[in-house]
Amino acid sequence: MSNLGVLIDAPILLLQLLVSGILVGAIFALVAYGMALVWGVMNIINIAQGEFVMLGGYVVFYLDRAGVHPVFGIPIAAAAMYVLGIALYRTVIWRIVDRDMFTAILATFGISILLQQLANQLFSADIRTVPSRLPSVQLAGGLMTVPEIKLVGFAAALAVGAVLIAFLRYTRLGRAIRATAQNARAARVLGIDTDHVYATTFAVNCAICGAAGGLVAMTWFIQPYLGLTYTLRSFMIVIVAGLGNLSGVILAGAGLGVVEEAAGFILGSEYQTAFIFLLLIVILVARNAMLARQRRYLK
Amino acid sequence: MNSNSTRLAAALAALLAAGVAPGALAADGTIVLGAAVSLTGKYSTNGKNTQDGYNLVVKTINDKGGVKVGNKHYDLKVVYYDDESTSARGAQLAERLISQDHVNFVLGPYSSALTKAIAPITEKYKIPMVEGNGADRALFTQGYKYMFAVLNTSDYYLRSAVTILADEAKKAGRDPKSLKIAIAIENDNFSQDVRDGIEEDAKKYGMKVVIDDKLPADLNDMSATLTKVKALKPDALMISGHEKGAVLGIRQVAAEKVYVPMLALTHCDSAEITEKFGKDADYAFCGSQWDVSMTYTDRWFGNSQKYAAMFKQAFNYDPPYQAAESTASVEVFADAIERAGSLDKDKVRDALAKTDLMTFYGPVKFDATGKNIAKSMVMYQVQHEKYVVVAPAKWATAKPIYPAPTWAERDAGATVGAK
Fold first, then answer.
1. So what's the ipTM on this one?
2. What is the pLDDT of residues A153-182, one digit of tens each?
3. Closest CA–CA distance from residue A213 to any residue of chain B (Å)
4. Strand bridging mode B129-131 / B180-186
5. A149 contacts in B (CB within 8 Å)?
6. Rounded to an integer, what distance in angstroms lies between the CA atom of residue B274 and that of residue A251?
7. Are the Cβ atoms of B216 and A273 closer than 8 angstroms?
8. What is the dihedral of CA B129, B132, B136, B140, to 10 degrees?
9. Over the stretch B14-65, which tens digit does the pLDDT of each residue have?
10. Do B257 and A3 touch (CB under 8 A)?
11. Contacting residues of A for B251, CB less than 8 Å apart
């Protein structure tokens, strides 16, 4: 617990942990948006979420090598992943919509293994990075540092969140997506092409992951097997935030990031992940207790 | 007739049971070595290095007349399987190499984890294995009799960084006892060993380990650890976690502008940190098994430089130490088989135990546990975006730069350099 003492001696570090945590969490939140969307609309828990992030990262990496600046590379990655999303929907995903959730988990798990191994064959297992070419902001005599790329990631997470909310609320397709999520059969009766809605939803998720992947490659690194980290984190964020609650997702993402940083600092990083999952259990139990109380009121 | 064939069958069975069956190997003048290496999965980069190292030496030895056993010359051949970077598969394949393909000699896989999976199998069948990519100390405490390793154990990777730290402190008039070390490792056997080596030597000098973090395998961010480094201001930060650790270390230390007088890493060259990060990689210390600048002589390749040139010509990249130690493993086998004058696996095993061979990779001599006790590690430092050897003194081409300049100085220097 001597680490706690350090924190009390230098409170500015607390701020550093807070800021780092929020910025790290934002990228996870970005991936979680997509997961919440697919889960809510199609009732599919997408295990291949992290693999889409990884592939997006590789697109930005190879574009960067070809001389395309990541500012353009990230939108191109999103577009490329959108196309892949449509292709995956037309080949596999349409078969598992409206099926048992276990089938969906198995199918997307299969896709995740396939994409990992393909990436390994195509790109090799080398660790890749994309230079961010951005400086770091230093405050408080160097005790507090914020790499600008992390700020970019945070801004991107907010922007994508805002665009997504606007899209779902105000566009025709967005409303169709929400209608399908509420009741697919009724939506079909009213003339909504639910197949098209599903395809778009899945592809939009892929595009979001693709953009996140570009940011990951510029902030940390990419390799064919990094997917699970992102799948698990986004899964947790969605569970905490609940489905259909996009602003909740970014809050949960940031909160998760902060708790993770603080746990890493105080307990040591070997307990970082364990602490997070412990917290998840506590949250689920607490929420269940709260919901049970509400249910009692309803009686 | 009947009794004759029965006797023959019995004799064959006895021969097989004893595991000799040299006929299977020597039939067409070929000695078959078996290897399960990681061609897919997370180790596939280093797995390919391993395979390339094996292939180059097999071709070179065969071109130079092969392996001489008695009056006969044998060509070498390697049977490969892909262990998919998983221990369970590695063990299965070792079993298959021995019981189905009937190989009498096994070459090591890539990584300590895979070597750990295979060693019990080769031991069970009493098949000699020479490996160059399993450095975990725990491999040499099992009492294995048929496993021989040409490389230094992993606790040696960063020991000399601690020594350099102590020497430099003494030169500056500081007591090494006042030095503080931060350690951040990935939570695996190899890195744990690296950490133990650092801790043992730090204790010897009376240094204090102020941070001792283990990064979770699935985590890709070490900013929490780095914040701690900022707060506690250690004299050295030592990170070990294969390629991932090296990349993350350089990237985040630079991005978060964390100042440490010494940053020491492993796996720098295979992670290509100078290529990836340029100036940001400067002043990093890196432990390595081998360097091309070392001038050991070699029977088949001549020396390191010639080896590196042949390797580059064959595979179009510079040989990392993972390839060099794989090549050395085959050389050790060839040498032992010639000295044994036989393809009998037990005779070869005994010859292996008595190995005293000079290779381009370094001298090889095994202790009773099978590890190489003749070779020493190399410590690089990245200076002006190039690796230079700073230890051991015999091979050093430059003096270590310690302490590293601060980020403010480096940023100022960078702009001056750019103009």
1. 0.83
2. 899 889 988 999 999 999 999 999 999 999
3. 13
4. unpaired
5. 255
6. 38
7. yes
8. 40
9. 444 444 444 344 445 899 999 999 998 878 888 999 999 999 999 999 999 8
10. no
11. 129, 220-221
